[in-house]
Amino acid sequence: MLKHKFVTAVAVLATLAIGIQTSFAFDHNRKKSASFKVRVENISDKDGLAAQDGSKYPFALPPGIFVVSTAKTELFTDGQKASGALESQAEDGNPELFAKMFPVVAGSLTSGVFNKPVGSDMASPILPGGAFEFTFNASDGMKLNMAMMYGQSNDLFYAPAKAIKLFARGKADSGDITEKFLLWDAGTGENQAPGLGADQGPRQKGPNTGADENGVVRLVKDGFIYPDTKTVLRVTITAN
Predict the structure, then answer these.
(1) Residues 73, 116 within the same domain
(2) Domain extent for 52
(3) Among residues 223, 60, 237, which one has the least CA distance to residue 149?
(4) What is the DSSP letter of 123?
(5) What is the number of alpha carbons within 13 Å of residue 137 lying toward its C-beta?
């Protein structure tokens, strides 16, 4: 009887041990995940930026697009023609075509637009002192991509050269990621002096107006002067 109880107890303990090991193995193999908040701030001088003619114009950041995925979800390719979605984003600050390109797939892809300044229920650009914020959940292996227009330009936009790793050092990243954002020329509309061009908002007659450039996407290099990114824009990410 005692022997039988002893054998039964050993069997139960063995079963529990196997269960615990299986549980540990399962937890070990699960991908790390976290919730993230991204904040995009317009930190430009409230008195405006100097235009080519000496006048001042306000720096503005229209609504933008973000995509989070494990798959390759580049928004453009350096040296190649811009898509219609990028043209709409870079010329008019309209991310809706991009949003349609990246429908949300639970667990593998999250996308969305950021278009309402913090503290506002209305979609609009952010002016000096304003900010956009958006949140998402992601697991290890996922990357963040974003694009947003340089307000008073013909077809310029800020974006990273490639999607940003969210778990680059084995844990969810937090901090200032502004340095990853470069100023690009979509190559879709002929550039005019920033803050002065007749085909730039708010002076253009309507969306998708102005002379076509028929170029390719590249870092901006048109002879005009643009501010250092870190003096007008700040992008931070916080993991929880």
Answers:
(1) yes
(2) 33-239
(3) 60
(4) -
(5) 8
Question: How many domains, the chain?
Answer: 2
- Phi, psi angle pair for 103, to nearest 5°: -65, 145
Task: Pull the structure tokens for residue 9.
Answer: 């107890």
Distance, CA of 145 to CA of 109 (rounded, Å): 11
On the 0-12 / 13-18 / 19+ scale of CB atoms within 10 A, 19 is exposed
Q: Percent of the chain at pLDDT above 70?
A: 86
Spell out the residues 6+ positions from residue 236 whose beta carbon is closer than 8 angstroms to its own.
Answer: 38, 39, 41, 175, 176, 177, 178
Q: What tens digit of pLDDT does each residue of 13-53 get?
A: 333 333 333 333 333 445 799 999 999 999 999 999 999 99
CA distance 77 to 162: 9
Q: Residue 211: which CATH number? A: 2.60.40.2130
The residue written with tokens 């950041």 in the block is 61
What phi and psi, each to the nearest 5 degrees, are found at residue 221? -160, 80
Task: Please indicate, yes or no, whether residues 18 and 70 belong to a single structural domain of this protein.
Answer: no
Identify any residues that bridge with 33 across adjacent strands, giving them in sequence order: 139
DSSP code string of 143-193: EEEEEEE-TTSSSEEEEESSPEESSTTSS---EE-GGGEEEEE-SSB----
Decide if 178 contacts 210 (C-beta within 8 A).
no
Amino acid at position 51, single letter: A
